[in-house]
Amino acid sequence: MLSSFLREVRALLETIDESMAQEFVSLLDRAAAMTPLTDPAPCPVPDLARARDLATPATCPAIDALLASAGELRWSRPDPAVVPPGWAHRSAMTEIIGSEGAIAPATNERFGIFLLDTECDYPDHWHDAEEFYLVLAGSGDWTIGDTTRTLTAGDYSRTPSRAHHAIITRDRPVFTVWGWSGDDTTFDSYRF
Ligand SMILES: [Fe+2]
């Protein structure tokens, strides 16, 4: 059930002593009374089950809950008309909470899941909203400004508003949750 997945993500975020992580703990608490999605769409990444082999003992309960609830979500790919070529067809995203969220509307936050297959380059971009990623399985190289850091399962990253950032995967895919927060969480400022 999707509620189980949200509970597991909440438990992981609760261990992170960082203000945006705690903001989303509160958001997930408020989303507990959610409306089931009526128009799910299948996840376009075929080897979703591989996430289980790339999780840690700490993140495996969240991945198990994700695999059990993936069919309840409305998955999509980044719009190839909007993003640079070469990677959108090998990624998948779903917004669970937010203005386009599946289960709970929100105005100042968005929350969802993002998957990026192996050998993908999600190139440098920025937006007004602050952003966090919490990796549940696999790994990727996150560049924020001039700093690059490899994130693996359990790692958390926060990107300030308007900071340039990029994600590159190598021989492993990455399975991550993400959140946006701020006065402007529209995609109006999303730029490559
Ligand atoms: Fe971003």
Could you name the CATH homologous superfamily? Answer: Jelly Rolls
Shape: globular
Question: What amount of the residues lies in strands?
Answer: 25-35%
* Order of helix and strand elements from N to C terminus: HHHEEEEEEEE
Can you name the CATH architecture? Answer: Sandwich
CATH fold category name: Jelly Rolls
Tell me which ligands are bound.
fe (ii) ion
Compute the number of helices: 3
**Domain tally:** 1
User: What is the residue-averaged pLDDT?
Assistant: 91
How far apart the termini lie comes to 35 Å
The percent range for helix content is 10-25%
Which class in CATH terms? Mainly Beta
What kind of assembly state do the chains in view correspond to?
single chain
Count every beta strand, where a strand is a DSSP E run of 2 or more residues: 8
Low-confidence stretches: none
Radius of gyration: 15 Å
For the biggest sheet, the summary is:
8 strands, antiparallel
Return the structural class: alpha+beta
